[in-house]
Automatic annotation (TrEMBL):
It catalyses: GDP-alpha-D-mannose = GDP-4-dehydro-alpha-D-rhamnose + H2O. One of its GO terms (molecular function) is GDP-mannose 4,6-dehydratase activity. Its cofactor is NADP(+). Its EC number is 4.2.1.47. Residues 6-354 form the NAD(P)-binding domain. Belongs to the NAD(P)-dependent epimerase/dehydratase family. GDP-mannose 4,6-dehydratase subfamily. This is GDP-mannose 4,6-dehydratase. Keywords: Lyase, NADP. The keyword NADP applies. Catalyzes the conversion of GDP-D-mannose to GDP-4-dehydro-6-deoxy-D-mannose.
Length: 380
């Protein structure tokens, strides 16, 4: 008998990779997607099977973490062996603008899932994975951060996730449920949302080398993050639910890097060396040299606009956060030892994967524009 998984947040970065992983392991996967006025399933369209033609192994349900009845009905219908609660308003800066909604979806949403399982009498059957986050550590208490490091959240997002973390622990202890937190540090991929810092950088760098954008505007480029690849991190989610006992795990690489270094490496991968000059809000990124043979290798034909001395990066304080998380570096010892989990990607292979994908994306756009297929204007 195939195992049955229910994934909330199935249309997101991690939802897409996890669905692919579980289908490859023979699971039947049910995903919860939000109703939207435009298609929002781009990341999982390649996994979709037409229910008119086959008996699909991957099924989608409309739902929302703010709707208890909806979540309870879907859980009853699906009778999942495993629930992966990945849905969330996941953007830290946006959470300062939408604190109440973030608390409802990211905090109480987790409670709704746990209660659905409990009230339906599925506590013996259903294991729950909660998408916890390194943002819980917030203001640095100690480094590297492990399962025992105290939390000090620094945003409405992190405070909502703190509630979700502890309600998961509480349901495990109070009702004997298999409910585990994965405390995942930042993980990225070509599927990463466009407004998170890594994808913003790889998209902009690709556009700048192709001559489709002049300048990249950034916030705090001195923040340090422990970045991994989402493909490696969904493996850890799966492993956490395959354990004998329900426990919480830190998932991280153990290496931290400044945002400015991520920028420098991304441009260098694309054949452009950047120097930084000036201080804080006045700082700029300037092209110091261009490797034309690298541009040729990448099939970039429009290198002439890339002049030494050009400013391609400026600081825009609008991207500063009211309270910032300056330094994250995870200690993955427990997950290495107990789960046998180790990431396959390094920061360099992550950047290569993301920057190559964005380069291909915008080379396609450039070709379409050249052939006269510009953006459609529906209002003309
Ligand atoms: P994404 O932002 O890419 O995906 C979030 C998903 O949640 C999307 O499918 C989104 O739907 C859905 N969603 C948002 N609000 C609701 C709601 N109210 N009801 C139902 N679904 C909703 O995030 P990631 O894939 O990167 O992250 C997955 C989870 O892991 C999140 O909970 C995130 O907070 C957490 N996390 C992420 C880390 C990372 O570095 N990526 C690190 C640690 C934790 P739609 O597509 O319609 O917007
Ligand atoms: P983060 O990711 O807040 O760590 O949350 P993000 O990529 O948004 O920011 C990382 C760091 O980069 C700095 N930064 C900028 N960030 C963005 N988005 N845009 C900018 O222009 C910019 N300039 C500098 C930020 O200030 C920050 O220090 C992510 C999310 O996926 C969460 O859901 C998840 O829980 C954590 O990772 C772990």
């Amino acid at each position: 008998m195939s195992k049955v998984a229910l994934i909330t947040g199935v249309t997101g970065q991690d939802g897409a990779y996890l669905t692919e992983l579980l289908l490859s392991k023979g699971y039947i996967v049910h995903g919860i997607k939000r109703r939207s006025s435009l298609f929002n399933t781009e990341r999982i369209d390649h996994l979709y099977e037409d229910p008119h033609v086959t008996d699909p192994k991957f099924k989608l349900h409309y739902g929302d973490l703010t709707d208890s009845m909806n979540l309870t009905r879907i859980t009853q219908e699906v009778q999942p062996d495993e629930i992966y609660n990945l849905a969330a308003m996941s953007h830290v800066q946006v959470s300062f603008e939408m604190p109440e909604y973030t608390a409802n979806a990211d905090g109480i949403g987790t409670l709704r899932i746990l209660e659905a399982v409990r009230l339906l009498g599925l506590t013996e059957k259903t294991k729950i994975y909660q998408a916890s986050t390194s943002e819980l550590y917030g203001l640095v208490q100690a480094v590297p951060q492990s399962e025992t490091t105290p939390f000090y959240p620094r945003s409405p997002y992190a405070v909502a996730k703190l509630y979700a973390y502890w309600i998961t622990v509480n349901y495990r202890e109070a009702y004997g449920m298999f409910a585990s937190n994965g405390i995942l540090f930042n993980h990225e991929s070509p599927l990463r949302g466009e407004t998170f810092v890594t994808r913003k950088i790889t998209r902009a760098a690709a556009k700048i080398v192709l001559g489709l954008q002049d300048c990249l505007y950034m916030g705090n480029i001195d923040a340090q993050r422990d970045w991994g690849h989402a493909k490696d991190y969904v493996e850890a989610m799966y492993l956490i639910l395959q354990q004998e006992a329900s426990e919480d795990f830190v998932i991280a690489t153990g290496v931290t890097t400044r945002v400015r270094e991520f920028i420098r490496k991304t441009f260098a991968f694309l054949g452009v060396q950047l120097d930084f000059s000036g201080n804080e809000a006045e700082e700029v990124g300037v092209i110091s040299s261009v490797d034309y043979s690298r541009l040729l290798e990448l099939n970039i034909k429009t290198g002439s606009h890339l002049q030494t001395g050009s400013v391609v990066l400026k600081i825009d304080p609008r991207y500063y956060r009211p309270t910032e998380v300056e330094l994250l570096i995870g200690d993955p010892t427990k997950s290495n030892e107990k789960l046998g989990w180790k990431p396959k990607h390094t920061l360099d292979t992550l950047i290569e994967d993301m920057a190559s994908a964005d380069l291909r994306l915008f080379q396609k756009d450039q070709l379409l524009l050249k052939e006269g297929f510009g953006v459609m204007n529906y209002f003309e």
